[in-house]
Each structure stands twice: as structure tokens, then as C-alpha cells.
Write a structure and sequence with these properties.
The structure holds 2 protein chains of 2 kinds.
Chain A lengths: L15 H46 L6 H16 L2 H10 L5 E9 L4 E8 L2 H12 L4 E11 L8 E9 L4
Antiparallel strand pairs in A: 1-2, 2-4, 3-4
Chain B lengths: L6 E7 L3 E7 L8 E7 L10 H14 L4 E7 L4 E6 L8 H16 L6 E5 L7 E7 H10 L7 E7 H9 L7 E8 L2 E8 L2 E9 L5 H14 L8 E5 L9 E3 L2 E5 L4 H9 L1 H7 L3
Parallel strand pairs in B: 1-4, 4-8, 9-12, 12-14
Antiparallel strand pairs in B: 1-2, 2-3, 5-7, 6-7, 9-10, 10-11, 13-14
Helix pairs in contact in B: 1-3, 6-7
The chains are: A alpha+beta, B alpha/beta.
Chain lengths: 171, 276
């Protein structure tokens, strides 16, 4: 026989089992939340530890102090390097090569906006012809011979030379 | 703090006295501390005025205690009726309105001042109770919010007694007789369904008087024959021993040892302990 429910306060008895069920669900949810909270806390501690290690490493590798003007120069250099169209320039220099001239070394100097190259030619005429063609490039200006040397020890007497040109780039 | 963790205080409220019982916790047969405060049944226009006047200082003394208070209302303060099931009533509100109508049909205009409760679980006819709204407000005022003592339940004596001893009632046909000073109430069930409930004023201090009451009330019950064995909750000493009168055999309710000890000494404490 079921209980008799004639209570004049809130119907607490009627809701007893609903209340117990609700309490059980609430406890289960609370348990899940506590477990989740603990997992998050553990992750947070691990991340904090990693962050501290990274901070420590950055502090060791960082320069002691950089003056503002030095920093400005570094930034400017980097910006210049970024603005130089290296692929097009190299392509242009390679296009001036011939069967008689071999490019040995290419030394760009972005801060001075010049490019210096070392090459070897089969004859002095080929060398001069190469420097002239270099001057006709759209990206280079003021191409000239800096030095040259005839390699007597080689049987065909090749000419090793250094040429230099300015970069034709608007600032 | 959860109400489950509070100490329980059970208060029986009757026209002649109030009983305050404090069952201990932590064992199946807790020790019960109790006291009874007698009151003036003719203190006001309503029979409950004297009891509430006696309760007020008791409630004030309990105000700062972390307790959950249950008040058991004497049948002097409660009217009962059975409400027949009606297929046309769809909602709880409609069923409650119908229960109010049933009380109005029996008691007239004065029932408008009563609060009605309808047992939601009864199969077949449903038991309904009505209590003076002024009494309920007065009880709530005694345990106003702000104190640590909480009034958690106000229940009729029949509800408390039935819920406490329903497992001792035979399933096929059962009768529960509640006897208190100046009143008796008989509730009958047949196959788990309420079949009759009657309450009457009078002197019911012995088994022959109970038998007369049952004979009289049986005439009003149009159903099949009532069971001859009646479970009785009655004040000492008559309520403690099996007895017989007329066609009736009266079987006292078996109470737990400690609760029984307290109840054996005071009928109002016995009433309060029903809500344990």
C-alpha cells in the first residue's frame, strides 16, 4: 500500500524519490566536473613548467643589450634583404654566362646594394665580353672589372676575374 | 545544511496539550526525550487557539536550534472525506477543486476557510483532508524564517499513523482506529483502497466504547462487511493490550522499544511519535 500524502508543507514526501534521483545525478555530474577540473589543473601545471623552461632558455640566448640605433640598422638590413629580388637577379647573371665563361662565386652585399662575382673565362676577350653583357642587364648597373689574373699554370691559360655591379632597384 | 542532517523534533498538537518528542539518532531504537505542555482547549473561538498559544513559547525556545520540526495535527483539527474518482477530471487542480466541493457539500460555507489536501496516490476513492487555514498560518508564524529551526511538515494524525503502520495492516481488508482524548477516527481499507473514514467526538476510553463507535460507523459504510480485527492506536492503558468487545477484536499497534516506552507514558507523545 502506498504512503498517504496529506502534508500541508511543501510536498516533500511526494518528491522524495525524485529528489534522491536528482541528488544522484547531481553527485555524478559533480564527480565528472571534479575529475575534469583535476585534469585541467594537471595540464595547467605542465604548461606552466614548460613555459618557465622556455623563458629560461630565451633569457640565456638573448643578447645582453641592444642599442636602439643598432637595432634599427639590423631591421633596415633585413628589410633590404627582403626587398632584393634575388631569384630574378641570379637568373639575370646566369643568362649572361657563355660557353667561354664559368661563374665561380656570387657575393651579394645588400647593405651596399652591390653584387660581386668571381668567374673564369677562356680568354681576355671572353672576359670583357661577359662584363659588357653584365652591364646590359636590366637589374644591374655600372658593371665593371675589379681584378683579373691569367692562370699560367693551366695549359689553356684561362683568366680568373672579379667583376662588380650595382643593383638597379628603387629604394 | 541538509534537512537530513538536522535533528528531528516531532510535535503533536491537540486541543488539550502539545507534546514535543526528540528521538535520538544513530540507532534503530533511539532514546526519546519528550515533554508535554497542557493548554486551554477553550482559549478562543477555534479549538486550536489554546494549542497554538502553548506552542508559541516552545517554538521560540527552539528557534536557535538546528532542527527539522514536524507537527502532527490531532484529528480534532482535521476533517476527512473520501473523494470518488471521476473520469471527467483531467488535472490535479480540477481534482482538488472537486475535493473542496465535497467538503463544502458536507460542511457548508465554513469549509471555504479550510485548506484541502488530496492524496495523489490512492487507487479508487481518494482520501482528502481539510485544515483551518488560520491554524496553518499560525503554525508557520511560530517557525518564521530567520530562525535555525525549520518547520518541514504539518501532517494529520491519520497520515502519520497510517504511514508508520501501514505494513502491519492486512492487505485484503484492514481497519485502523486512532483514539485520542475526546475523539476517535476509524479508517478502513479494502484490497488496498480506502473504503471509509469517519471521525467522531466523544469519550473513547475503553474497548466497549470503541465497539459502539465502530458499530455506529459501520451503519454508514455501504460497502461489504468490515474486518472484525481492528488495529488500534490508543492512549494507555487500554491501548496497550489486545481486547475484544461486541463483534470486534482490537489489536494494539506494535511500536519500537524506545518509542513504545515513551508512547506508553503519554498519549500525546504517542501521537507525535507516529511521524517518526
Amino acid at each position: 500500500m502506498p504512503r498517504l500524502e496529506l502534508d500541508y508543507m511543501a510536498a516533500a514526501q511526494r518528491l522524495r524519490w525524485q529528489g534522491v534521483a536528482l541528488l544522484a545525478v547531481a553527485l555524478a555530474v559533480a564527480g565528472i566536473l571534479v575529475a575534469h577540473y583535476r585534469a585541467i589543473q594537471a595540464e595547467r601545471v605542465a604548461l606552466s613548467a614548460r613555459l618557465e623552461l622556455l623563458d629560461a632558455g630565451y633569457a640565456i640566448g638573448r643578447p645582453a643589450a641592444v642599442k636602439p640605433e643598432q637595432e634599427e640598422r639590423v631591421v633596415e638590413t633585413v628589410l633590404h634583404q627582403l626587398t632584393v629580388p634575388w631569384p630574378q637577379m641570379i637568373e639575370s647573371i646566369e643568362a649572361t654566362a657563355s660557353n667561354e665563361v664559368v661563374l665561380l662565386q656570387l657575393q651579394p652585399e645588400p647593405e651596399r646594394r652591390i653584387v660581386r662575382l668571381t668567374a673564369e673565362a677562356g680568354s681576355p676577350e671572353a672576359m670583357l665580353d661577359y662584363v659588357r653583357r653584365l652591364g646590359e642587364s636590366k637589374l644591374l648597373d655600372g658593371a665593371h672589372l675589379v681584378s683579373h689574373q691569367i692562370r699560367r699554370e693551366d695549359a689553356v691559360h684561362p683568366v680568373q676575374f672579379v667583376a662588380q655591379a650595382s643593383l638597379r632597384i628603387a629604394r | 545544511m541538509s534537512l537530513l542532517l538536522r535533528e528531528r523534533v516531532l510535535i503533536a498538537l491537540a486541543p488539550g496539550a502539545i507534546a514535543i518528542a526528540r528521538p535520538g539518532r544513530g540507532s534503530r531504537a533511539p532514546e526519546v526525550r519528550y515533554r508535554t505542555v497542557h493548554c486551554d482547549a477553550a482559549a478562543g473561538p477555534d479549538p486550536w487557539r489554546g494549542a497554538v498559544a502553548a506552542l508559541a513559547p516552545v517554538a521560540e525556545s527552539l528557534r536557535d536550534e538546528r532542527i527539522a520540526v514536524t507537527v502532527v495535527l490531532s484529528n480534532h483539527f482535521v476533517r476527512y472525506t473520501l473523494v470518488s474518482p471521476d473520469a471527467n477530471l483531467d488535472t490535479e487542480a480540477e481534482e482538488l477543486a472537486y475535493a473542496r466541493y465535497c467538503f463544502a457539500r458536507i460542511h457548508g460555507e465554513r469549509s471555504k476557510a479550510w485548506q484541502v489536501r488530496l492524496d495523489p496516490r490512492s487507487a479508487g476513492a481518494r482520501l482528502a483532508s481539510a485544515v483551518d487555514d488560520g491554524l496553518l498560518r499560525a503554525l508557520r508564524d511560530c517557525f518564521r524564517p530567520g530562525g535555525r529551526a525549520r518547520l518541514v511538515s504539518i501532517q494529520p494524525y491519520l497520515m502519520a499513523a497510517y504511514n508508520r503502520w501501514r505494513r502491519q495492516l492486512p492487505a485484503s481488508a484492514a481497519a485502523l482506529l486512532l483514539v485520542e482524548p475526546g475523539r476517535a477516527c476509524i479508517a478502513r481499507l479494502r484490497r488496498g483502497r480506502w473504503s471509509a473514514v469517519h471521525s467522531a467526538k466523544g469519550n473513547f476510553s475503553s474497548a466497549p466504547e470503541w465497539a459502539q463507535f465502530l458499530d455506529r460507523e459501520q451503519q454508514l459504510d455501504t460497502g461489504d462487511g468490515a474486518p472484525s480485527e481492528v488495529l488500534v492506536h490508543a492512549p494507555p492503558p487500554t491501548g496497550l493490550q489486545p481486547s475484544a468487545a461486541g463483534n470486534w477484536r482490537f489489536k494494539p499497534i506494535a511500536e519500537p522499544a524506545a518509542a513504545g516506552s515513551a508512547s506508553r507514558q503519554d498519549p500525546y507523545c504517542a501521537m507525535a511519535m507516529c511521524a517518526l
